From TrEMBL:
Residues 26-281 form the Periplasmic binding protein domain. SUPFAM superfamilies: Periplasmic binding protein-like I. The keyword Oxidoreductase does not apply. The lineage of its organism: Bacteria, Bacillati, Bacillota, Bacilli, Bacillales. Keywords: Signal, Sugar transport, Transport. GO terms for molecular function: carbohydrate binding. PANTHER family: D-ALLOSE-BINDING PERIPLASMIC PROTEIN-RELATED, GALACTOFURANOSE-BINDING PROTEIN YTFQ. GO terms for cellular component: cell envelope. It comes from the Bacteria. Its main location: other. It is found in: Cell envelope. This is Simple sugar transport system substrate-binding protein.
Length: 307
């Protein structure tokens, strides 16, 4: 194996405890809580010292955390970038300091791919495609317009951009499938509820809700029920993540289809950290395997769901 091109930070293989600085997006969703736990548990199990920060969904806080990890001379920096753009300067600072960076969960749009070692996480475009394909199949023979509202994730984030694009790609072939409103709900339950309330006020004829995550769908369900409508029947609901609460709503028939997004990235991250510290070659892209759930499949999977 070839040595990693900017070394393993400050821990030579095997001679001292590895220090990992991790800059998390926030605690905006059930998915994020499971992701944080996976990273903390896996770091402990691997015997690494983990420095962890929560950016409260703000890029400036993540940049501050990364700069502080550079100053503290950690061995490896990992982070899940809240948005895709605007990382080149701080990534260059890490590279100049000889500290390797690993991206988890979300991508950056930096043209210079040498600024990070690998990107571990889901294929969000594919997740959007799965959602769109299910809907396209469901309404393939529809003679009437199907009015869709979309709750987008955090503006500028990779999952919001990609889940929107993948979904649009798959529904484009059927002109009856119409996105009549699309707004961010910032991946939170509270915002999902608030925006759905506004959608329901503005449009009397909503057939489908596509939510970029379960939390926003769960908030929207509260708004739909408060408006006297039946989620899953009067309004068909598709979401992404498949966290326990989402799966419960699917099992109850309130969410019709969930595309899984796996938050348990900790073990793969720790393996990548070790490889980078050991100067081993590492894949530039590590994609997480994922599935989908109808209400019936959610019912079956729920008892053994970890998160
Ligand atoms: O980046 C992954 C997304 O971020 C999850 O789908 C969402 O729930 C989270 O907040």
């Amino acid at each position: 194996t070839a040595p990693a091109n900017n070394g393993g930070g400050n821990a030579a293989a095997g001679d001292k405890k590895i220090t990992l600085g991790f800059a998390q997006v926030g605690a905006e969703s059930g998915w994020r809580t499971a992701n944080t736990k996976s990273i903390q548990d896996s770091a402990k199990e691997a015997g690494y010292e983990l420095k962890f920060s929560d950016a409260q969904q703000k890029q400036e806080n993540q940049i501050k955390a990364i700069r502080s990890y550079i100053q503290q001379k950690v061995d490896v920096i990992a982070f899940s970038p809240v948005v895709e753009s605007g990382w080149d300067t701080v990534l260059k600072e890490a590279k100049d300091a000889g500290i390797p960076v690993i991206l988890t969960d979300r991508a950056v749009d930096s043209a210079d791919k040498t600024l990070y070692k690998t990107f571990i996480g889901s294929d969000f475009v594919e997740e959007g495609r799965k959602a769109g394909q299910w809907l396209a199949d469901k309404y393939k023979d529809s003679s009437e317009d199907v009015n869709i509202v979309e709750l987008q994730g955090t503006t500028g984030s990779a999952p919001a951009n990609d889940r929107k694009a993948g979904f649009e790609e798959k529904i484009a072939a059927n002109p009856k499938l119409k996105v009549i409103a699309s707004q961010t709900g910032d991946f939170t339950r509270a915002k999902g509820k608030e925006v759905m309330q506004a959608f329901l006020k503005a449009h009397k004829d909503i057939d489908v809700l596509y939510a970029h995550n379960d939390d926003m769908a769960l908030g929207a369900i509260q708004a739909i029920e408060a408006a006297g409508l039946k989620p899953g029947e009067d309004i068909v609901i598709i979401s992404v993540d498949a966290v326990k609460d989402g799966m419960q709503a699917a099992a109850d028939g309130k969410i019709n289809f969930i595309v899984e997004c796996n938050p348990l990235l900790g073990p793969q991250l720790m393996e990548a950290v070790q490889a980078v510290v050991d100067g081993k070659e590492i894949e530039a892209r590590i994609v997480t395997e994922e599935t989908t759930f109808t209400s019936e499949q959610a019912k079956e999977a729920l008892p053994s769901r970890q998160y």
